[in-house]
Structure formats: C-alpha cells, structure tokens
Amino acid sequence: MIKVKRLNGKEFVINSDLIEFVEETPDTVITLTTGRKVVVQEPIDDIIDKVIAFKSKNIQYIKR
Fold it and tell me: What does the pLDDT average to over 33-54?
C-alpha cells in the first residue's frame, strides 16, 4: 500500500499491486487493474519511488 493525496489534499492509500499504469495529463492519473482511475497530486516519479520503497520493505521483511 502506498499513501497518495487527491487533488483536494485528502490522503488515502492505494494497493500498489493493483496499479496498471500511471500517466500525467497534466495531472497524475493512476489506473488500476480494476479499471478505476484516480487523480493524485504526486508526480509520476514520486509514485514510482513510493512503490519501490514499499516493495523493498516487503522483500526485506520476507528475508528475515
């Protein structure tokens, strides 16, 4: 799960395993495998960094 903010500033979490793709149009739109689209404040690079950090944390936990 990654934390993101809607355009109104309200924070919520997205299951990063459900992200199909992310695009800037110019707002950042996250499309989920369910077909749902979510517009967020964060730029694409921040979304990528958050997903990498989350998955890295999970891998480190599993290796223990």
Answer: 97
* pLDDT (mean) for 19-45: 97
Q: What is the DSSP string of the chain?
A: -EEEEBTTS-EEEE-GGGEEEEEESSSEEEEETTS-EEEESS-HHHHHHHHHHHHHHHHHHHH-
Q: Is the pLDDT of residue 33 over 70?
A: yes
Alpha carbons 50 and 63: distance in angstroms, whole number:
20
- For the chain, how many residues are written? 64
Map out the domains of the chain as residue ranges: 2-63
Q: What is the pLDDT of residue 59?
A: 74
CATH class assigned to 2-63:
mainly beta
**Which is nearest to 38 in space by CA: 13, 17, 60?**
13
